[in-house]
């Protein structure tokens, strides 16, 4: 039976630990400062006068650093705990962000962005491990959703602040970004302890190393395909919106609609769904909604129709992403969760690194319709993989 409407909000946000709320606050502060990411390409091309090709290489270095950071962050988290990794990732990243305006040459910026991204991305597996540690099995998915709510609010606030600061000077963007990172680091340092649990007894579903967990590696393939299909709506879809005569203001509203929906609905939605069925069904449903979205695009035109498309995409995100985290958490334990989280983060980083090349080259050579077909096909492959995993493993509850 579904929860009564009057109990949904209270139930969705109750029962979560103080530490989970603190981690979400840190995430909100940190992601509010990620305005640099949104304006970095503009800064490099317009302020420093680098070519598009040079800018692409520098952003690729940033992406390569994220792989290194996620890998090392997961390894160190399993050895030292999440606290030192989160603190030093945020603190060092904050310092490095403020140093960006001092570097002007192409080669140094390539090296610098790699180092900066390596430190910054180490935060993610440590944060995921901390959320898992301070959650109960029955509310882990809601804890993840609260963390995602903070991310979405931060991404909504960050670009708005960054746009204001950019009109004054791009240097202020880097300074404010650095300050937010350092502030979040000291909240972690003074408010969160590096508690550790004794490793639990292993079960057949938990392997010592994620690199030998074939089921999990297959899941990462599905996560990569899903991420490719999802992020396309935010990285290259604006090009199509523009081709369909939407204004920049309308495109901005569409981007904001996703964040608002996730922030307003996901916690309540997860609370109402948890325990109803296995995580595999929720993830597959999320991929199915992406498949429907891509098959619908050729028949859509106008702002209202694309707003409906964003609603479908947002529902896909709310079904799939929290429960992907739940699968990762249930597949690991306290002795190896950092490495499991690292591989999960790396699959998403890989999608964001490869997607711009795949999407733009497909559009340039074959047109938008071919891209929609490819993405629909990858969504279908994601569903098939998740269903295979669901059949070959024991049912994993949604919370």
Question: Can you put this structure into words, describing what you see?
Answer:
The protein is mostly helical and 399 residues long. It has two domains: 17-194, MFS general substrate transporter like domains (Growth Hormone, Chain: A, Up-down Bundle), CATH 1.20.1250.20; 204-399, MFS general substrate transporter like domains (Growth Hormone, Chain: A). It contains 16 helices and no strands. Helix 4 runs parallel beside helix 6, helix 4 (52-80) runs antiparallel to helix 15 (337-366) and helix 8 (140-168) runs antiparallel to helix 9.
Summed up:
The protein is mainly alpha-helical. Helices cover 80% and strands 0% of the residues.
Instruction: Return the CATH topology of the largest domain.
Output: Growth Hormone, Chain: A
Rg (C-alpha, Å): 20 Å
The helix fraction, in percent, is: over 70%
Unreliable stretches: 197-207
Oligomer: single chain
CATH classification, class level of the largest domain: Mainly Alpha
Determine the strand fraction and express it as a percent band: under 5%
Shape: globular
């Amino acid at each position: 039976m579904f929860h009564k409407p009057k109990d949904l909000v209270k139930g969705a946000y109750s029962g979560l630990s103080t530490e989970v709320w603190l981690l979400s606050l840190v995430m909100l502060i940190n992601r509010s400062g990620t305005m640099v990411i949104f304006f970095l390409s503009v800064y490099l091309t317009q302020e420093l006068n680098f070519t598009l090709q040079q800018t692409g290489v520098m952003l690729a270095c940033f992406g390569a650093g994220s792989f290194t950071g996620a890998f090392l962050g997961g390894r160190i988290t399993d050895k030292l705990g999440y606290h030192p990794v989160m603190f030093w990732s945020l603190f060092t990243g904050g310092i490095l962000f403020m140093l960006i305006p001092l570097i002007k040459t192409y080669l140094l910026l390539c090296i610098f962005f790699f180092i900066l991204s390596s430190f910054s991305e180490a935060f993610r597996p440590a944060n995921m491990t901390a959320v898992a540690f301070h959650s109960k099995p029955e509310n882990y998915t809601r804890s993840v959703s609260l963390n995602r709510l903070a991310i979405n609010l931060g991404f909504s606030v960050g670009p708005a602040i960054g746009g204001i600061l950019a009109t004054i000077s791009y240097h202020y963007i880097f300074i404010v970004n650095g300050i937010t990172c350092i502030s979040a680091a000291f909240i972690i340092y003074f408010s969160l302890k590096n508690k550790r649990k004794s490793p639990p007894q292993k079960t057949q579903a938990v392997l010592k190393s994620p690199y030998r967990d074939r089921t999990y590696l297959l899941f990462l393939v599905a996560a990569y395909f899903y991420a490719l299909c999802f992020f396309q709506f935010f990285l290259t879809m604006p090009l199509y919106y523009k081709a369909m005569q939407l204004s920049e203001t309308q495109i901005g509203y569409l981007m904001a609609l996703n964040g608002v929906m996730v922030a307003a609905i996901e916690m309540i939605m997860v609370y109402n769904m948890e325990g109803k069925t296995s995580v595999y069904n929720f993830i597959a449903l999320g991929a199915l909604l992406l498949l429907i979205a891509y098959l619908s695009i050729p028949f859509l035109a106008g702002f209202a129709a694309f707003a409906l498309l964003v609603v479908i995409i947002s529902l896909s995100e709310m079904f799939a992403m929290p429960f992907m985290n739940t699968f990762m958490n249930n597949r690991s334990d306290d002795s190896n969760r950092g490495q499991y989280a690292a591989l999960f983060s790396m699959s998403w980083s890989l999608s964001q690194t490869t997607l711009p090349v795949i999407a733009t080259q497909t559009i340039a050579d074959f047109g938008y319709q071919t891209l929609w077909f490819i993405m629909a096909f990858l969504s279908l492959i994601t569903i098939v993989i998740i269903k295979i995993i669901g059949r070959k493993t024991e049912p994993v509850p949604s919370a």
